[in-house]
Amino acid sequence: MSRLETWMRVNPVREAVQRWYAGPLLRRLGGTVEGSRVLEIGCGHGVGVDIILGQFGAASVDAFDLDPDMVARAQQRLARHGERVRVWEGRVTEIPEPDGAYEAVFVFGVLHHLPGWRAGLTEVRRVLKPGGRLFAEESYAPFITHPVWRRLLHHSQEDRFDHEALLNELRTQHFRLRDQRRMGGGLGWLVADKA
Ligand SMILES: C[S@@+](CC[C@H](N)C(=O)[O-])C[C@H]1O[C@@H](n2cnc3c(N)ncnc32)[C@H](O)[C@@H]1O
Question: S-S: 29 plus which of 5, 55, 105, 191, CB 3.0-4.6 Å?
């Protein structure tokens, strides 16, 4: 990961946007997850886990990230939550949990990193209970494939998706959309239930 990419994940502006915009918006779209066992994929340095506990009322949160540096930062940030939080180094395509393990899964800007984003979504679906809820914030093709960002950031460029394509894939994978928002073509939020 380049220094710019690390900075884009770990900076006070991203943290404030996630905490004061994305969290409250997702809660308006999908409600809380009081008392639930929750998973966050691609947790970065752990701000999302704080939000899921504090704003959504989860009982416990499991979280993982591909990047060992992010995992170490998240573990340090979240240590005060004790056994309510577990953070490990791992991949979206191989979640080490049985089918239906979680009542909710949170995705803050991760699917667009996956070369096989549909397979990532399938794995997320697998670990959700029937009726379990997916909360997602995603960046879309117009941002990912923009010539400037393409040069600066290492995103997979093949088969990128926009808001409509993500909604279509959710339908194909038998999710039921609860609500959604988009900002221009580059950014979107949605909440959907595993049918
Ligand atoms: C744009 S960052 C978002 C981080 C954090 N969720 C946030 O909103 O600040 C994407 C994160 O996904 C992680 N990631 C990318 N591919 C992954 C994979 N296959 N499995 C798990 N994590 C992955 C990256 O290491 C990075 O921390």
Answer: 191
